[in-house]
Amino acid sequence: MSEHRANLHWERGSQAFTYESYGRDHVWRFPGGVEVPASSAPEFRGNPACVDPEAALVAALSSCHMLTFLAIAARKRLVVDSYGDDAVGYLEKNADGKLAVTRVVLRPKVVFGEGTSVSKQDLDRLHHRSHEECFIANSVKTEVTVEPA
Question: Looking at domain 53-146, does it have CATH number 2.40.110.20?
């Protein structure tokens, strides 16, 4: 249905190339000119001022869930004033003993517009459907849990 592109660029520079010394900083470039400074996670000698791939995966899952939720709400004529999430991904050993982002917990907090009333049960259904239809959640084998606020 569609293609999505990203360009990645890394250079060694003048530092030695050993595990302890090579730079992890690199750049993600996206169509339209967006550039994101990236690195490995600080726990793996990365730059804490940059986005690491694990955090980007968590953000992609959170963002996809939100965008799906907003689309469903709009189609149901449920006015949403704001949406926030405090998502957390867990890097741990999987069943094969390999490090992986094994689970992600989304904690969305939705504020509906004045005059829009949604029961807890209906909100849970909206989040469930959003998770089922999220492109990114459907693309990973990481366990994704949604715990609405």
Answer: no
